[in-house]
Amino acid sequence: MDSLSPDALPIEKMKSYDLPAIASLHAVCFEDSWHTELLGRILSAPGTFGLFSRPRGKVVGFVLCRSSGQEGEILSLAVAPGLRRNGLGGALLEAAMAQALKQDIEALFLEVAEDNEAARRLYQKFGFATVGRRPNYYRRRYGPSVDALTLRRTLTSNGSCEN
Length: 163
Ligand SMILES: CC(C)(COP(=O)(O)OP(=O)(O)OC[C@H]1O[C@@H](n2cnc3c(N)ncnc32)[C@H](O)[C@@H]1OP(=O)(O)O)[C@@H](O)C(=O)NCCC(=O)NCCS
Fold this sequence. Notes:
The protein is built from 4 helices and 7 strands.
C-alpha cells in the first residue's frame, strides 16, 4: 500500500480497541515507542482525543492530542513510512485542528526535535511558529541529544492563523 490519495483515506476517531494497531505504527515511526497500555492511559484522560486512518484495514497514520482548558497539545503525529509525502500528515493535522476547535481549544502547542526537518516543515506549512526551546530535550540512542522546539498555533474557525 504505497500510493493512496489522502481523499481515499478516511479519518476515524481512536477508540481503546484501536490502540494495539496504533502502538505498532508508533513503534515503526519513533525511536521511543509508546506501548498499548501507555496509549490507553493517555487516551483515557479527559479532553484527550486521537484520530487515525485505516484504509483496507491497516493503520497508516494517527494523531493524538490533549487539552487543558483552552490550550491543546499535539502529543504525537505519524504516518507510515511508505505513505509519506502524500498529504496524510497534513490531513491528520487539519482534522486535529478541527476537532480541537470543536472542543473550544483556542491554541495548539507541540514539541518537535530541531533536526526533524519533515515535521518542522509540515507544521510551518500549517501556520505553527516557534515560541520556545528546550535544550537537549531528546536523548538519542545513537548520537548527541537534540533540542526540542515548542511550536504554537492559534485556532480560528475561519482557518486563519495568528501565532
Ligand atoms: C512528519 C510526518 C507526520 C509528515 O507526514 P506526511 O504524510 O509525509 O506529510 P504530508 O505529505 O502531509 O506533507 C505536508 C508538508 O509537510 C512538509 N514535509 C513533509 N515531509 C517532508 C520531508 N520529508 N521533507 C521536507 N518537507 C516535508 C512539506 O511542506 C509537505 O508539503 P508538500 O508535500 O506540499 O511540500 C511524517 O514524516 C512522519 O510520520 N515522520 C515520523 C514521525 C514524526 O516525526 N512525527 C512528528 C513528531 S513532532
